[in-house]
Amino acid sequence: MNIRRFALGEGKCSTHALSSIVFTAGFTTAVILPFYLYLFGAGIFWEFLGIAICTLVVWGVESYPLMRYTRKSGKILTLPGYYEYRFKSRGGLLRLFASVEIIVISVVLAALFVKELSIILGVIFDIETNKCMAIVLILLSGLLGYFGINLIYKTAWAKAVILVFGISFILFYMVSTLGAEGLMKNLMSSDITGSVSRYLNVLYHNGKLLEPEDFVSLISMGLLASGMPFMLGIFFAQKGPKSINKGRRVIIIFSIILFEAAFFMGAVSRGYLYPEKLTNSLSRYFYLLFTKLYNESGTGRFASFILILVIVIGFVTAIEGAMHVVITSIYEDIITCGKLIKVNPKKSRRDLIIISFIVGLTVLLVGAYIEQMSISVIITFIATLGCSVSPTVFLSLVWKRMNSAGCMAGLVGGLLAVPFFKFTPFLMLGGERVSLCDMLGINSVIPSMITTILFVVFVSLITEKPDEKIEKEFREIKSRISE
Questions:
Q1: Higher model confidence: residue 427 or residue 320?
Q2: Coil, helix or strand for 433?
Q3: Is 401 strand, coil or helix?
């Protein structure tokens, strides 16, 4: 198996599409959406509206030109490789920086995902967290190293079916057990929420009426998916516009069904778990839900194991996607194109398996030494990657004046913007120093993306414009000549 087959595989358009949406929605929709609905109410809908907008932008605006650039170059396998080809960057600095940024953040993300999964399984089954992480990573490293992205493609249908039918089965079981009247009584109990209508009202979040800045924050969180390297890398494997169109239809159908099932499962789970007090711990939430289902025996016990399967798939889709990006980028961008080590193409499978286990070990070590674990930490790293990659890719596909210096500036600006706006207390409010996000009452996504765009535009304009060859190719790609 060569690196191209490892990176792009031989999947059909439907598996490309499902791999993309299962990666994007598997963790967020199957795991986070039910938990957030249980905790905050239906106002979380706006965050997933952002994911829908992101999906439309990625598949409607970015997919075609990314596919055309890949077909014209014949050698693009990674986002750093795309940057280098798009801007004809010399010296390899842009590709090196982009690959290191993606590798480091993706390793941390994979470590956060696998540790949170291990914490949940550890709480439920009384398994030591590090042992659980080791088991998961050994399995994934071996399978990814041997099969590459075909592992993700070939399991996409099974994962999609299990997620949709699994969540639906759990939902129907909880509703049938409680009954409509019992569910309403539980939801109206004073220690859960004062009003069912408020809890199920999309204009309320965490019991409070949403303000304009809340809509901005919630919707913007969904836009981060447009910066995930694995999701964008899917289009490097597309054969043509017909496969993209078919894939987009598959995504629309699957995402609507999955979202609706997870939405109602999260809403019903609050009433089902009554009289338990609310918990803001993800692992505690799934422990409570698993325990109550398991104690019902019979069908309930079967539903409890379906729940575990859904949780595992939700996390694994994110972990394997992040690891695949890291392995591919290390081999293609760092080793091969960086010419650090002379590789033998005939032994690429061996090399990829070795790199896979090294990546797995690195993820395990990072996960073992991460002490501060919370969903907010995971979201911060997703935001850092998304705010750096998303605007640079988008502008590179719609603005012909953008150059390699602007691309580098955008990657650096996006990397620094999220922690700066989120954590740096450089403003005074009520006699205290606070960050911009605290002052405005929003998250760091929008100001960070704006910063990235400004960096790209400013640096591109003050540096040398792209040569005629690059602009001509941009116009050809935009006018679909390569199709």
A1: 320
A2: strand
A3: coil
Residue 199 tokens read as 């809890």
Bridge partners of 208? 205
Q: What is the pTM of this model?
A: 0.91
Tell me the torsion sign for CA atoms 232, 236, 238, 244: positive
Please report how many Cα atoms fall inside a 13 Å half-sphere around the Cα of residue 370, on the Cβ side: 26
Is the distance from CB of 272 to CB of 174 less than 8 angstroms?
Answer: yes
Sign of CA dihedral 238, 242, 244, 247: negative
| Span 246-261, average pLDDT | 87
> Does the pLDDT at position 333 exceed 70?
yes
User: Residue 256: which of 21, 16, 416 has the closest Cα?
Assistant: 21
Q: Quick: pLDDT tens for 290-301.
A: 999 999 988 999
- 427-456 pLDDT per residue, tens: 656 667 777 777 777 788 889 999 999 999
Q: Which two tokens stand for residue 347?
A: 């032994």
- Residue 209's DSSP bridge partners are 204
- Give the amino acid at 128: E
d(CA 2, CA 11): 15
Residues 360-415: pLDDT tens digits? Answer: 999 999 998 887 666 677 778 888 888 999 999 999 999 999 999 999 999 999 99
Which of these, 55, 82, 49, 56, lies nearest to 67 by C-alpha position?
A: 82
**Residue 81: enclosing H or E segment and its boundaries?**
helix 79-87
Question: Omega into 275 within 30° of 0, i.e. cis?
Answer: yes
Q: What is the 3-state secondary structure (H, E, C) of the chain?
A: CCHHHHHHCCCCHHHHHHHHHHHHHHHHHHHHHHHHHHHHCHHHHHHHHHHHHHHHHHHHHHHHHHHHHHHHHCCCCCHHHHHHHHHCCCCCHHHHHHHHHHHHHHHHHHHHHHHHHHHHHHHHHCCCHHHHHHHHHHHHHHHHHHHCHHHHHHCHHHHHHHHHHHHHHHHHHHHHHHHHHHHHHHHCCCCCCCCHHHHCCCCEECCEECCHHHHHHHHHHHHHHHHCHHHHHHHHHCCCHHHHHHHHHHHHHHHHHHHHHHHHHHHHHHHHHCCCCCCCCHHHHHHHHHHHHHHCCCHHHHHHHHHHHHHHHHHHHHHHHHHHHHHHHHHHHHHHCCCCCCCCHHHHHHHHHHHHHHHHHHHHHHHHHCCCCCHHHHHHHHHHHHHHHHHHHHHHHHCCCCCHHHHHHHHHHHHHHHHHHHHCCCEEECCEEECHHHHHCCCCHHHHHHHHHHHHHHHHHHCCCCCHHHHHHHHHHHCCCCC
Cα separation of 147 and 327, whole Å? 12
User: How far is it between the farthest Cα atoms of the chain?
Assistant: 70
